[in-house]
Input
Amino acid sequence: MLVERTAPDAAALQAELTDLLQLEHDALPAYSVAIMALHDARLREELRAHRADHERHVEDLSALIRARGGIPLRLPHMPTGLFKLAVQAAGAPGGDRAVLLAFVSNEWQSQEKYARHAARPHDPEVAALLRRHADDEARHYAWALDALEAMGCGTGTPVGRMTKAFARFHGSTADAVEAAGRVALETVVRTLRAA
Ligand SMILES: [Fe+2]
Ligand SMILES: [Fe+2]
Output
């Protein structure tokens, strides 16, 4: 695997930040579905607090994209954003456990993706934002795992193991499709900047 040692140039950074902003726009509707479907008021409150973190992520990423001469898109990833929403909606009729099992699959991708981006070289302002977001996502994911553990669906149980396998498959597939989209976007930004 290619290890990047230098910070991305302006076009690559725009593509990277846009990809992460789209990840946030994937998450927000999935959160709304999960919050609507949950019966337990305490779980709903916790998810509302996490959704507020994602709303802050959108604002902070948008401000950074603008500050670096770009325009923040308000679009989910196509088609993975819709698939993530479908995963969340599929869990809705199954009760709180199913809602959280679906939720944890989507959060797994968020925390993996942010952690990967935070580990790459960036200038201090970008690095600080990515670190902050990566920490929030890791906290969301850990919370969802704890909540599932308390419902008897921890990672040691068959349903917990199955969810983990699905999260990895779903997350890695979404990652691959989104990475291809980011490369295409970077090419467009480069062409437009050169024109
Ligand atoms: Fe987020
Ligand atoms: Fe999250």
Observations:
- The chain has one domain: 10-194.
- The radius of gyration is 17 Å.
- The mean pLDDT is 88.
